Amino acid sequence: MKLINRGAIVVRVKQPFIDWLNQLPDTTTPYTADDFKEDCTVLLIPDFPSLEEMEAFINPLKPDLFEEELLNYSDNPRLWPDDLTARRFDAWFDLEVHSIVYDAAATPIVVEEDNEDEDEDTW
User: Fold this and answer.
1) Is residue 57 in some structural domain?
2) Which pLDDT score is estimated for 109?
3) Residue 9 domain-assigned?
4) Which run of H or E residues covers position 13?
5) Residue 51: which pLDDT band, with cuts at 50, 70 and 90?
């Protein structure tokens, strides 16, 4: 295993996200908090010397991260909340910060691009 120069942030849903999800037209079986205890979104971020610097880095990303979380369950923006702000993100999600990240894989990391026409990058 190799220690890498990244921090990790785990995104954990809160009840407002679950409430939104349960009111979607395609939801047939209600979701509960237990449904979101595993397989959460994880962000790798730069390795910052302080929590304040880490927060300054992540705050501007919250609206985009909010959108990505909503896209996992509905690709119809008309069903999303009106304001995908950092403040609303904080009401819908918790961020769990981890400053020590190891890479235990023997293979290189593959970065998948949003555009399917672009080649994948490895590092």
Assistant:
1) yes
2) 83
3) yes
4) strand 6-13
5) confident
